[in-house]
Structures are given as C-alpha cells and as structure tokens.
Amino acid sequence: MRLTVLGCAGSFPGPESACSAYLVEAEGFRLLIDFGSGALSAMQRYSDMRAVDAILLTHLHCDHMLDACTYVVVRRYDPAGPLPPLPMYAPMGAAERIAAAYSAEGEPVDDVYTFYGLQPGTFPIGPFQVTVDRVNHPVETYGVRIEHGGHVLAYSADTAPCEALLRLAAGADLFLCEASYMDGVVNPPDLHLTGGEAGEAATKADVAKLLLTHLVPAWASEASIVEAAGAAYAGPVEVVRPGARYDL
Fold first, then answer.
1. Where is the Metallo-beta-lactamase domain (predicted)?
2. Is the sign of the CA dihedral 235, 245, 243, 169 positive or negative?
C-alpha cells in the first residue's frame, strides 16, 4: 500500500500546497481520499489524473471536495471520449453539492460519478478494507481507516478530539492526522485538533508513526505544532508535503 500526498494545506490552499487530497494505491488500484481546492493541479504533477478508480470524500467542505467539481470536465470531455463513471463514496448530498458547484443550473453529474452514501461501518473499495466513522466536526464528517496486506493507514479528516478517532487509528502503521490549531490559546471548539491533541491521539491509539497534515501557515507556526505533537507522542512525527510518498 502506498500513500501519495497530493495536497495537505488546511482550510484553504497555502503558498506551497493545494488543499487535502491523498492517493492510496495497492494492486494497481488507486483510491483518492478527498479532493480539495487546487488538488487537480497537484494530481497532474504527481500522478495520472485519468487513472483514478474510486474517490472517497470525508466531508463536503470546499477544502476537501471542491476539485471533484472541476474534475467533471476531465472525465466528461476527454478528447478520446467520456471516461467511465467513478465510484464516489461521500456524505449524503454530495451529488447535489458537486452539481451546484459545477454549474449554476445544478446540472447532474451522474455520468461522471456513481454515488454511495457513507455511514459508519466497514466495506471494501477495490483491494482495501475501509472503515469510516463520524468524527467531531460541524458538518457530517468521516474519519477513515484503510487496511491492506496486514497494514493500516488511518486518516483523521477534520475533527476535534473524539473517541471515534481513537478507534479508527488504533494500532495504525501510519496515522495521517490534522493539526490546524496552536496549543495554549483559545481555539473554536469542536472544529480542529492542535498539535498536542494530535500527539495525544497518536499515543492513545498506539500508532507507529504520526503524519501531521492540514496545517494552516496563516494561523499557526509549524515548528510549534510539531513541538507540541512531539511532547505528547514519543514516536516519529513528520509534517507531510505535496509529493511525499509513504510505503506500507
């Protein structure tokens, strides 16, 4: 199983990165998790934009799904002909939200995507065993656990601390976890994690490696977030970058 980071900026595109988008590959199958603002550009840099087999959107905030709208053009109007519809796993309402963002008339996009509504549970996507659960964010949002070949990748999506996050991350080889806020200040509640909270979750879940993502350079110092995470978690901590690859 290979993870490729296409975009990792939090809440809005940063000066060096598109928003959240992560490509997970195994046995020739490519699963894209989230497709945030600017991620289609990064996909062309680090991957083949046509070679996607399924998409999972953790929630319907723009920084995690907006380029699924732009991607309609790629698949619908390819000069060689329309590409086959892609399975799209997403919260309920995704079809309407993508259609509304794609065109003012809300032109349907069911020729591009076949939609499957997410709900807590475990199910297969290609060669992967995928588990999703609701996490602590203002809109319907799912953290993700992906298993393949005896290895586990966990992804927090956007969340404040919650028990579901710990269940999804339990014993993971890689824990891709958001860390948007600074420790030691008053932050909006039930929205995002601090570096320290990400580290605490990694320790409680007994993960092998913590990958920090969804940092917001305009809001928080990367060095401070990493320091806070390292103070709460004794294992290896790394901030992900666009184009970074991790093999499990």
1. 18-196
2. negative
On whether the CB atoms of residues 223 and 170 are closer than 8 A, the answer is no
Domain residue limits, the chain: 2-247
Its CATH class, for the domain covering 2-247, is alpha beta
Closest CA to 159 of 52, 53, 15, 10: 10
Pairwise CA distance, residues 109 & 64, whole Å: 18
Which of helix, strand or coil describes residue 233? coil
Question: In angstroms, what CA-CA distances link 25 with 1, 18, 29, 30, 81?
Answer: 6, 20, 5, 5, 25
* CA 216 – CA 9 distance, rounded (Å): 6
Which of 215, 210, 185 is CA-nearest to residue 199? 210
Q: What number is the average pLDDT over the span 108-134?
A: 98
The secondary structure element, H or E, covering residue 157 is: none
By CB atoms closer than 10 A (0-12, 13-18, 19+), residue 175 is buried
Cβ distance 56 to 89 under 8 Å? yes
Q: pLDDT tens digits, residue range 20-75?
A: 999 999 999 999 999 999 999 999 999 999 999 999 999 999 999 999 999 999 99
137 DSSP 8-state letter? S
Could you give the residue ranges of the DSSP H alpha helices within 126-235?
163-169, 195-205, 222-232
Helix (H, G, I), strand (E, B) or coil at 77: coil
Pairwise CA distance, residues 69 & 84, whole Å:
16
| CA–CA distance, 165 with 142 (Å, rounded to integer) | 9
Q: Which residues contact 99 (CB under 8 A, 6 or more apart)?
A: 106, 107, 108, 109
pTM of the model as a whole: 0.97
